[in-house]
Amino acid sequence: MKEKLNLIILEEIKSLKSLLNLLDEQFEYINKNNVFALEGIVKKIKNQNAHIAKWEMERRKLTGKRAMSEVIASFKDKEIEENYIKIKNLLEEVKLQKDTNEALIRQSLGFATRMLTLLNPDRTPKTYGPKGLR
């Protein structure tokens, strides 16, 4: 079980590194405002997420309902511990990059909305009623 779990962890590390690279690529496309490339990278990110989920399901089949930290501690194996720490660090990096990309996309959307509002202002008449309200 220990060797199989370590194999699964190593595959998850590869998959997470690949996802992080895709998110970095997405970051570049966001900065360059390359909408068409962004559409293509979204499909790749979804596929990579599915690949990670597959390995995660394999790991859960192997460990059952036990927490990973508990399983890792029970093995007392330095290599598995180090790989588990790598996964945790990679997950933090992926989360940070994903949050950064989402914030940049929201900022770009907000800017585009404001520009559209300036270019196409509210066309209702600017008159006031008897109470001083529109």
UniProtKB/TrEMBL annotation:
<dbReference type="Pfam" id="PF05130">
    <property type="entry name" value="FlgN"/>
</dbReference>
<protein>
    <submittedName>
        <fullName>FlgN protein</fullName>
    </submittedName>
</protein>
<keyword id="KW-1005">Bacterial flagellum biogenesis</keyword>
<dbReference type="InterPro" id="IPR036679">
    <property type="entry name" value="FlgN-like_sf"/>
</dbReference>
<dbReference type="InterPro" id="IPR007809">
    <property type="entry name" value="FlgN-like"/>
</dbReference>
<dbReference type="GO" id="GO:0044780">
    <property type="term" value="P:bacterial-type flagellum assembly"/>
</dbReference>
